[in-house]
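Need the bound structure for LARABZUK, inputs here:
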Amino acid sequence: MAEVRVKICGLRTVADVDAVAAAGAGYAGFNFFAPSPRFVTVEAARALALAAPPGLCKVALVVDADDATLDAIVAGVPLDMLQLHGHESVARVAEIRARYGLPVMKVIGVAGEADLAALTEISLAADQLLIDAKPPKDAVLPGGNGLAFDWRLLVGRKWLKPWMLAGGLTPGNVAEAVRLTGARQVDVASGVESAPGVKDAARIADFVRAAQG
Ligand SMILES: O=C(O)c1ccccc1NCC(=O)[C@H](O)[C@H](O)COP(=O)(O)O
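Answer from helper R.:
Posting the output first, comments after.
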């Protein structure tokens, strides 16, 4: 079976990109949500994307972004994918996909069984799904909170599109998450950091190794 593909989200320095590539991760995520400690400007993200080796999928994470914001990101940064981490509707996902000609990964937050229904509907429009923990009601960030959901909710489930597991994953628990859910792709932000927004190369390497068994 093909090895598990890993996305490391919220890279801010060229050293982060180098660490992600050296570890063998498949995706590098750049965060354009201003309140996040992982936020990067278009100019900074461009430098990071240009430092990425061929084959590393460069993903822009946005939250309910309007067309002007997306226009600036897509024009300024060489990208391979857009990650929609807000409340984007099925129609908005389809619109963004058509407007930019890039694959779109739509995030669905999960706290319980009832949240899984949204995955079926959104998989008609998105190229990939990212199944993350639903943020707490009072959270400032819609993602990157280091919170896990009950992975058992995903056991035996299938969706039309490739999917990625996220939420509270760490080098210590990712192997169990993969074993239990059957995920072939995983995503992490805070679990490979030494402080909010500060990636740790050793933790990135440990995470990829653990995810890929
Ligand atoms: O990471 C952030 O700061 C963030 C802010 C706003 C929206 C999404 C954000 N992160 C998205 C991701 O893809 C994370 O990797 C995912 O939510 C998992 O985060 P974590 O539990 O910290 O590994």
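Comments: The CA atoms of residues 2 and 128 lie 17 Å apart. DSSP finds seven helices and ten strands in the chain.
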